[in-house]
Amino acid sequence: MEELPNLKSSLSEEQEFCETHFKSSYKINYQGRFVVKLPIYRDINQLGDTKWLAISRLLVMENKFKLDSEFEKEYKDFMNEYEEAGHMLHNKNLNSSKQEYFLPHLSVQKKYSITTKLRVVIDRSCKPPNSNSLNSVLRVGQVLQIDICTILVRFRVNKIAFTSDIKQIYRQILIDPDDQNLQKIVWRNSYDSVTKEYRFSIVTYGTSSAPFLATRCLHQIGLGSQNINPEISNIIQNSFYMEDLTAGAKSNKEAFALIQNLSETLNARGFHLREWRSISQDVVNNLAQNLGEESNLEIHPKNCSETLGLIWDSSTDCFVFKINFNFEITKR
């Protein structure tokens, strides 16, 4: 018989740094949410002045707004929602003595997304001349979650399958106030107003350390649940790929019990599961009855949903492929 490779090999120096840094610096605030520090391993004084670059990129973005009013509305709505949620804080103290770093921002659009069509992310490639970018002083960290193929194989084992995802996982993790000055942006809502400085108070899309910080917080919840509920701990550590959950149970009763316990465990740390789907209509009906609108239950009209890059038809429990032909069929 062949031997399986040792998946839990020793950590590299970079991975060891990130793990030690996380365990020694993370905190749980009064709301039960994670507060983490950026895994900085190089002198941040090597970061250059990027405010002028951030302003010039903002002006370019505003020119795009003039050409597409719908894009402008979606972009501004996203930024306003960020500010209202407290994820983007107005930096009133402009004479801060702390090292600061400004990040240009841009949009990523997902036309077929059920929840967020447009998302504002930072430009990870931003680098002033003869200087370092923010990502160049951050450690990336180890990959904590198992590979997609293994998760999908496990997904086929149980009789009752279900899927879900964590709502805005990055935005549920707070950045320590000492590090927020390294996540600054410039923004204004109208062309005739002055630009203002803001700082992100949460883990941001585009930073090299964001995936590690998000999955490490999720992993920590699993570790903390080992003695309380080993089954829930196992699901959290082995059935998530980033924020996407693919799991199952032997029966409808067991499936709903798992879903309830999983939801309660993750909610305690600000991670809210949503978009539940299942091959069992009884599980779906039970979810709608007991979780209701709080779960943001979304059922695709054709029972199909994207699952780890594939399309899962929950009515037949099959994976299907969607192919778009973006060209004209000619005689040739």
UniProtKB/TrEMBL annotation:
According to UniProt, the name of this protein is DUF1758 domain-containing protein
InterPro entries under this entry?
DNA/RNA_pol_sf, Rev_trsase/Diguanyl_cyclase
* SUPFAM superfamilies, sorted: DNA/RNA polymerases
For this chain's UniProt record, which GO biological process terms are given?
Answer: DNA biosynthetic process
Q: Which gene encodes it?
A: AVEN_242173_1
